[in-house]
Amino acid sequence: MSNNSSFEQTSFAGQVVVVTGAASGIGKSAAQLIASRGATVICIDTNSVGVEQVVAEIKSTGAIAESLLLDISNQSEVKNLVSELAKKHNKIDALVNCAGYPGPTGELVENINWPDYQKVLEVNLYGAIWLTQAVLPVMKKQKYGRIVQVSSIAGKEGNPKMAPYNTAKAGLIGFVKGVAKEVAVDGITVNALAPAVIATPINVNTAKETLDYMIAKIPAGRLGEPSEVAEIIAFMASKACSFTTGFTFDISGGRATY
Asked: Of these residues, 101, 126, 144, 165, which one is catalytic?
């Protein structure tokens, strides 16, 4: 009996889950895992080829997914897309926001042009805020929701020569803490996740010096795998995550233990 109820808590049967950044890396792994547990997964990205491929892979396993294009740094696009999704599906059970952009790395803060700095904030922080603002009224109406924001160890500890990314990800953690308290009695949980370096395409253009610094800080002595991150995300987005909110989960190979 207890096994069955525990399965129901981690199952996504009948649920609609939105995953941004779904074309690759953490978002792709999360979308695949959540779809395998029964959700209709709405895979969102700016990369049309990548996201369509992920949806095709998910469908080939018999699971349900659809692809949509969205630049989350465009506020009106975010509002319109969420509104259309809510109309089409009549609900949104969970939002998993994996969309991210590292911006300049290996650069001293005083050498970073403001437009480059601002772009990182728009994607990693503003986009996360706009998505949250858009899905909350839907979730409040249905008295249920899970919001998962992928932050970063950079938001907890700061990495040198990555000032824009540090700023955005730290801001995201603060945003999650406060909003979670606003909706704690509405059946909605809002949590962040702070990965250390994960083996994903986002790190392809990261300066070697920066990457070496980050790996050296991980006691486990290796990069994390997207599939490892997906397991925590699936829990955070499920019914099982009912009494943890405003929290920043750790997946850093021991780098952060707070």
From this structure: 165
